[in-house]
Amino acid sequence: MVNKIPHIVVVGAGFGGVATIRALADVKAKITIVDRTNYHLFQPLLYQLSTAVLSTDDISFPVRAMFRRRDNIDLFMAKATGIDGKNKVLHTNHGDIAYDYLVVSAGTTNNFFGMENVRKYSYGMKTIQEALHIRNHVLHMFERANKQIDSEQVRRQMLTFICVGGGPTGVEEAGALAELVAVQKLDYPNLNFDEVSIKLIEATDKVLPMMPENLRNYTLKVLRKKGVEVMLNTAVADCSEEGLFLKDGTFIPSKTVIWAAGVRAHGLVATLGPECDRSGRIIVEKTLQVPGYPEIFAIGDNAHFEQDGHPLPTVAPVANQEAVVAAANIKKMIKGQEKLREFSYKDYGSMATIGRCQAVVSWGYLRIGGFFAWCIWMFLHLLRLEGTHADITVGTKWLWNFISGTRLGRIITNIKFDEEQ
Amino acid sequence: MVNKIPHIVVVGAGFGGVATIRALADVKAKITIVDRTNYHLFQPLLYQLSTAVLSTDDISFPVRAMFRRRDNIDLFMAKATGIDGKNKVLHTNHGDIAYDYLVVSAGTTNNFFGMENVRKYSYGMKTIQEALHIRNHVLHMFERANKQIDSEQVRRQMLTFICVGGGPTGVEEAGALAELVAVQKLDYPNLNFDEVSIKLIEATDKVLPMMPENLRNYTLKVLRKKGVEVMLNTAVADCSEEGLFLKDGTFIPSKTVIWAAGVRAHGLVATLGPECDRSGRIIVEKTLQVPGYPEIFAIGDNAHFEQDGHPLPTVAPVANQEAVVAAANIKKMIKGQEKLREFSYKDYGSMATIGRCQAVVSWGYLRIGGFFAWCIWMFLHLLRLEGTHADITVGTKWLWNFISGTRLGRIITNIKFDEEQ
Question: What is the model's pTM?
């Protein structure tokens, strides 16, 4: 069976998975993408969905449409549940898939560090569904507070929004929430907006740790000016339906705790066996192969790759660069070449947005914060977004948001309609 | 208490409710809008949400943002459950609201004509949630059929889409589904699209009954050319999870029955007492007052108003025109004037779209079908849509749809993620 076309299975249609398939453009193989959803989600803009700037369709793009011109690619929409590396089979909730090469790029899920109540009562921010839950819930809180004419205490609890985690997600979410509140202010003449409070809670002494100190300080200044109360060196102890308990014994009454404090690798990864780090990532070889399984590659948030003594961060550029090497190595193996490429990450820097007209960008010697950084941030995100139509609609919405200062998507959609409405 | 400001309560933020409040612009009164949702839904484009052309936010607009400049207006987001006309109190699931004047414009809900299984197994098309259910379900059917490599019978059942009702909703939905199928065809190289079937079922002998005969025939021709099987004089008997039973004994295997065959007035209306018609609409006075309750007005789909021997149709223009008269009469009553305006409907005609580049328009002597009618349809819908931003995004998406022929929103969003994704 020398002429049998190999079957490459890619788990996950995130940045890593999509980049892998792009890099496998000219390969003579059958490629199957396995994903729970039928779309590629542009995660960096999820916070804009959760704060009513963008719509679902703006930041998600059908996987099939991305690879429409390549007939050797099919999507298998299913939940990957386990890997049988010995028999080269991927288990899914819609049946098993045999593979010759497997790329594990299943991404991450929220890490609640074993705090069951936090898992139960806080809002994660990893999926479209979670982002919509946050949007619906936050907007609902304003409607409910507006009806609470008797109790300031109840209103204050409803109008206290807590983001936990000072990384890019937490910072961007807190900044965008502050702007959403400013828009809401115009629409609730009977609400006292002094009762609204946005808190950003971070366990360490800094936000955006990957940024240089001056940009970190700039970020703090901008967030505080927007009305975000930044609480550094503050650790979470527990959570309930009524609020958040801190390690120092403080209780903050709130109906909205948004969890952006940590991620861990998709549970699928652990079913494989090889050694994982604390975050559930596989400690991979220099070639990105999984130890003991040369035909399995782990990339992106599923791979623990050490460079200069530190594991690489769980960010999109790492996944994209790893995808190229994993794809190259699969092609080499198909051709029977023994010498595979070793991965090395080139760090071009990082950026984060804090709000309208304000972002921080750190690229080598370029370290800026403010309007120009925001323009760079916008331009690059539009470039990286899938689909021309999304560029147009997102660009239009951002322009409109910039001009009018409003939020287009303040629609509460999780209403349960019974038969009688 | 001569100087007490009257309280006008408007139930429903649909076309009638919104037009009433607009017409009450200069009134010295407190106005409360009661709606289950926080948005005004542009119902005529709901079928485009259900067929992945537009997004939720494109066709829904926050009610508070519409009346931001008028401080005497507030939204009370709640489900109106009953009217106590004697004590002038509206009951809601968030408490009672006392009114001096009440406008009942709560719209309609699906009418399943007592067929319990149809209610249970078919898909309604009245709310954002229902439209998204249809979209998710239809897209899912393709993914599932693509995995059914063994059974043509199962695939055919999954790929049979039935619209019941030959009015504008059914026709527009069937036409848009046919176009969605054409787009899907590009993305499923392994599916045999001869197995796909779209059926439009109508109990009478015509579709779009309000249109002249030549445009009705044109509509049939266009639908059939698109691949829609139009079944006239075909009555539904029952429905199950596996398909649709017709009165003649035929069973059509299908997982997708979209119900656009009838509406009835919101259940709230019946709690008032006065005589209602078969569709649950209140038979109103010439002044649009509810018999026995001069301070209550019923308009739009909640009012049965006879003109020229026929009740007016349940369409937006009727609601809009009635709103103006109801508002005028409330203003007269506040001023103590006894002579109220009597309503008379001016019919400007109707239109419906059958698909990309094809619509029918019937305005007096102008009776056209085709591309020019479609341009008129698009232009007028953009004009009537709330919010400049929606004009821009919807206009952009339509243009993109026209140029590229693709569907932007083919995203399945109702996936249940458990903790492990």
Answer: 0.93
CA atoms within 13 A on the CB side of B134: 29
Q: How far apart are the first and last CA of chain A?
A: 62
pLDDT tens for B39-51 read: 999 999 999 999 9
B123-153 pLDDT, tens digit each: 999 999 999 999 999 999 999 999 998 999 9
Catalytic residue from among A130, A172, A202, A322? A172
Q: Which residues of A, range 210-239, sit inside 8 Å of B by Cβ? A: none
Contact B62 A392 (CB under 8 A): no
CA neighbours closer than 13 Å in the CB half-sphere of residue B323: 27
Q: Is B137 on the interface with A (CB under 8 A)?
A: no
pLDDT of residue B369: 92
Interface membership of A119 toward B (CB under 8 Å) = yes
Angstroms from A186 CA to nearest CA on chain B = 7
Give B187→chain A minimum CA distance, Å.
6
Give 10-residue mean pLDDT values along chain A (421 residues).
82 97 94 96 94 91 91 94 96 96 96 95 95 96 94 97 96 96 93 97 96 95 97 97 97 98 91 89 97 96 95 93 98 96 94 90 90 90 81 81 78 68 36
Distance of CA A231 to the CA centre of its chain: 23
d(CA B167, CA B272): 30
Domains and CATH numbers, chain A: 7-36+78-110+263-334 (3.50.50.60), 116-261 (3.50.50.100)
Contact at CB, B62 and A37, closer than 8 angstroms: no
d(CA A389, CA A62): 12
Q: Note if A179 is an active site residue.
A: no
Which residue bears the tokens 């009015």? Answer: B167
* Beta-carbon separation of B409 and A57 below 8 A: yes
Residues of B within 8 A of A64 (CB-CB) are: 187-188
> In the numeric block, which tokens belong to residue A263?
């991620």
Tens digits of residue pLDDT in B318-338: 999 999 999 999 999 999 999
- Which among A71, A91, A69, A95 has a CA at the least distance from the CA of A80? A91
Q: Are B265 and B175 in contact (CB under 8 A)?
A: no
- The per-residue pLDDT for range B201-249, each reduced to its tens digit, is 999 999 999 999 999 999 999 999 999 999 999 999 999 999 999 999 9
What pLDDT band is residue B303 in, cutting at 50, 70 and 90? very high
Residue A234 tokens read as 């503050």
DSSP H or E stretch at residue A251: strand A251-253
Cβ density class B238-252: b for 16+ within 10 Å, e for less: ebeeebbbeeeeeeb
Instruction: Residue A59: name the closest of A108, A14, A103 by CA.
Output: A14
Q: What chain A residue is nearest to B400 in terms of C-alpha separation?
A: A389
Search chain B and give the residue with CA nearest A388: B400
Alpha-carbon gap, residue A202 to A190, rounded angstroms = 33
Total residues belonging to chain A: 421
CA atoms within 13 A on the CB side of B203: 11
ipTM of the complex: 0.90
B97 CB neighbours in chain A (<8 A) are none
* Strand-pair category, A263-265 with B160-164: unpaired
CA–CA separation, B97 and B142 (whole Å): 48
For A185, name the nearest residue in chain B, comparing CA atoms only: B68
Q: Are β-strands B358-363 and B350-355 bridged in parallel, bridged antiparallel, or unpaired?
A: antiparallel
B408–A contact, CB cutoff 8 A = yes
